[in-house]
Amino acid sequence: MSDFIKDFRDSANELRHLKCLTIAAMLTALSIVIGFFQIPIGQMLYIRFDFIAIGMIGYLYGPVVSGLCACVSDLLRIVLVPTNNGSFFIGMTITAVLAGMVYGIAFYRRKLGLIRVLLTMLFIGVFLHILLNTYWLSIMYGTPFWTLLPQRIVKNAISIPVNTILFFALSNPLSIACRKLNLVSVPTKQQM
């Protein structure tokens, strides 16, 4: 448990470094741009790729920084391209922050193995995207939770393996490049 708290403290301390702020800002901007590219797979269902940048922020700078960047990314995306008639719903932003924090908790100072990436994507997919986002959507649109749930399960059954493969395939070369460019401040812990 002390490692868990230490990771949060260390992640918050990362915000004191200009290198962290610069790289996190660039990856947040990249997340916004990548977020515009999505694959529709049904009504109100699509696969997005912005998780890659937020996951890399979590790997580099931990849960506090990745949670903040996920929040900024979500809010700026709403300002730049308002959807749903320009409506803002705080629940979706809360989910984005939680997902960013989960990436930071799972990846910060750790080796990015396939099992770790898969478990992280499963956790985010099941608890945040299927359960929590379905709840938010039921509030936003007045549609019963149980009516939305089957579509959300199908969407995540498709996106979880895709996200796992994409993130794992991209994270290994990116993590090597980050170490070579001295963007990772502390050696990584061993995989679980």
Look at the structure and give the mean pLDDT. 88
The main sheet orders its strands as 1-2
Tell me roughly what share of residues is in helical segments: over 70%
Strand percentage lies at under 5%
Known CATH architecture:
Orthogonal Bundle
Would you tell me which CATH topology applies? Arp2/3 complex 21 kDa subunit ARPC3
Termini separation comes to: 15 Å
Major sheet characteristics = 2 strands, antiparallel
Q: How many beta-strand elements? A: 2
Structural class, please?
mainly alpha
What is the H/E string? Answer: HHEEHHHH
- Which CATH first-tier class would you pick? Mainly Alpha
The shape, in one word, is: globular
InterPro entries: ECF_S_folate_fam (IPR030949), ECF_trnsprt_substrate-spec (IPR024529)
Keywords: Membrane, Transmembrane, Transmembrane helix
Pfam families: ECF_trnsprt (PF12822)
Protein name: Folate family ECF transporter S component
Overview features:
6 helices; Arp2/3 complex 21 kDa subunit ARPC3; single chain; 74% helix; 5% strand; two-stranded antiparallel ribbon; mainly alpha; 192 residues
